[in-house]
Specification:
GO molecular function, one term: ATP binding
Shape: globular
CATH topology of the largest domain: Rossmann fold
Keywords: ATP-binding, Cell membrane, Ion transport, Iron, Iron transport, Membrane, Nucleotide-binding, Transport
Number of strands: 18
CATH superfamily of the largest domain: P-loop containing nucleotide triphosphate hydrolases
CATH architecture of the largest domain: 3-Layer(aba) Sandwich
InterPro entries: AAA+_ATPase, ABC_SmlMolc_Importer, ABC_transporter-like_ATP-bd, ABC_transporter-like_CS, ABC_transpr_FbpC, Mo/tungstate-bd_C_term_dom, P-loop_NTPase, Transp-assoc_OB_typ2
Helix content: 25-40%
Strand order of the largest sheet: 6-7-8-3-9-10
Radius of gyration: 24 Å
Structural class: alpha+beta
GO biological process, one term: quaternary ammonium group transport
Number of domains: 2
Bound molecules: adenosine-5'-triphosphate
Organism: Psychroflexus torquis (strain ATCC 700755 / CIP 106069 / ACAM 623)
């Protein structure tokens, strides 16, 4: 397997070292893979992609693109010479240039610029839109022009920074699938930052998790979901309830002392037989369309929220979970 992007011991601080935005980060991305970067606000996602793109200088470490050192303490290749394409959340198109001119702008070779731009516009489904100006396009179309502009020079690495966060949820879902199908078709290696872990699960070959500037886990989506290495990682991918002492007593599930345990909300069952069950009083019901959210008071006074699509009658229910669904972390 060929590697396109290699990051070695990457460290970056701001404010004379007071804020460590990235702390000794190491990873690589294989050719043609889509790698999502996920983490809470301030975890270092933007700093990471800005360093890769050459928009920021590193403190220590190395960045290699296609086996070429592009950044180290001694070397800092200019952004336009790194062979990196970028798509930002705010499209960043030139308003006074037509769609075609916007795409041609990114191509550096002197030969057949127009042909290549037209081919790329066809690839992103915008054939016939060449003469329009950005303000004559919808948000989704503008984002596809931005993608065409980044892809037209055939970069080694395509970076997407929150590419769908300006779009409404219907558009976002459609465009997400379209964009990542196009990326896969071109075979470009892509790294994209997202707050939306559903985006990451849906399209990424690998997901990289940052916490306080540290890379805490990098795995395929399904592995990461099934085997999160910390409660931080687990809770990024859906609501997770920590099984504190009170909940362990309510469910009569004595767990190991030196571990932290949690259960995903979707693995809590209502009125079903399972390994650990507790009676619960329903304090509040919230109707959410396809399902309802119930605020519960367990036998021993502990509170818990469950989401269910079962019809729930009466004032009390049985809530429970199975031992196979309990997540355990060494924390
Ligand atoms: N130019 C800067 N000057 C000072 N501190 C900075 C600068 N850029 C980033 N930081 C700090 O570095 C840390 C990481 O910031 P970064 O923007 O990379 O996080 P992020 O994960 O992209 O956050 P968000 O999801 O909110 O965009 C934060 O503590 C931030 O305040």
């Amino acid at each position: 397997m060929q590697t396109t992007l290699t990051i070695k011991n990457l460290t970056k601080s701001f404010d004379q070292g007071k804020v460590k935005a990235l702390d000794n980060v190491n990873f690589f991305v294989n050719k043609g893979d889509i790698c999502a970067v996920v983490g809470e606000s301030g975890s270092g996602k933007t700093t990471l992609i800005r360093l890769i793109a050459g928009l920021e200088e590193l403190d220590s470490g190395e960045i290699h693109i296609e086996n070429k050192l592009v950044a180290s303490i001694k070397k800092n290749i200019a952004p336009e010479k790194r062979d990196v394409g970028m798509v930002f959340q705010e499209y960043a198109l030139f308003p006074h240039l037509s769609v075609l001119e916007n795409v041609v702008y990114g191509i550096k070779t002197s030969k057949a610029k127009k042909e290549r731009a037209l081919d790329t516009l066809e690839l992103v489904g915008l054939k016939g839109y060449e003469k329009r100006y950005p303000h004559e396009l919808s948000g989704g179309q503008q984002q596809r022009v931005a993608l065409a502009r980044a892809l037209a020079p055939k970069p080694s690495v395509l970076i997407l920074d929150e590419p769908f966060s300006n779009l409404d949820s219907m558009m976002r879902y459609r465009l997400r699938n379209e964009v990542f199908n196009i990326i896969k078709k071109t075979g470009v290696t892509a790294i994209f930052v997202t707050h939306d872990t559903q985006d990451a699960l849906a399209v990424a070959d690998e997901i990289l998790i940052l916490q306080n500037g540290k890379l805490v886990q990098k795995d395929e989506a399904s592995e990461l979901y099934k085997k999160p290495q910390s409660i931080y990682v687990a809770s990024l991918f859906g609501n997770t309830v920590q099984l504190n002492k009170g909940l362990q007593i309510a469910f009569k599930c004595p767990l190991k002392e030196d571990c932290c345990h949690a259960i995903r909300n979707e693995n809590l069952t209502v009125n079903k037989d399972c390994d650990y069950v507790s009676e619960a009083e329903i304090l509040k019901r919230t109707f959410l369309g396809t399902h309802s959210q119930l605020l519960l008071k367990l036998d021993n006074g502990e509170h818990l929220t469950v989401v269910t699509n079962e019809p729930v009658l009466g004032k009390t229910i049985k809530v429970g979970f199975n031992s196979k669904d309990v997540l355990a972390f060494d924390e």
